[in-house]
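Running this now, will post back.
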Amino acid sequence: MSWKACMTREFPEAVPQDRFVSWSYEALHRHGFRIENTIAFACVCRDEITLPLVEDIERTWGEAFIFSSLGGMPILGKTGFLAAQQHAPIEGGRERYVYYALPHIAIDDRGEFGIYFRLGREKPSHACGALVAFHHELTSRSLQLALDPDDLEQSFLKRHLLHKLRYGDVPDLLSLTKIAHAAILEELERMIQLTVDPTRSDYGVFTGIQIHAPEGRHFVWPGAAYVVKDGKKVSLPGMK
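Update: finished.
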């Protein structure tokens, strides 16, 4: 089966990455969000192959505040979230933010998920490497959950993911990536509730899974998409 067929089977709503970003801008523009009055926050994995998504976000919204960590888990905490908000433009007495938060996965030309061929390396590598490492601990029954001061981001990532697993479950990498998306969305919304004042701020949320395909192509499977304006949450219509 070709990689396109495999991707369509597992991520039927996936769209080209630039289209996902442009659609999100158009959707928020209808609610008064513009490049001049909004700041974007980008939370993706630290992997260099995720950077084209950040670049698309910055081409659309201007310079973004980067939330990124291993696996795309937002672990910068209240200090980081509050600091980012203080960089927002103020228009009409209100601030406007747009949050993008996505884990990622690769697919090779044979349709195998998790495999990525990097320039200058003969053997394939993985994406997402942090999720692959966690998956290896699960399959080898060697899961380490103590907070490792030499590996803080991976420690926090594993703790968030484990809360989404039933005891004894060992999901494959594709399933684990979808679980990571759910965990990232949950943590993002928790931190928004802790730090955003809806009496003075409006915001949009866009999540999904970034997919790295052969020939340098990047796609996004859309997840959550909504805006909170004047304290009221409105779901945004899907892409056509």
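Helices lie at 3-10, 17-29, 51-61, 77-85, 129-139, 152-162, 173-195. More later if anyone needs it.
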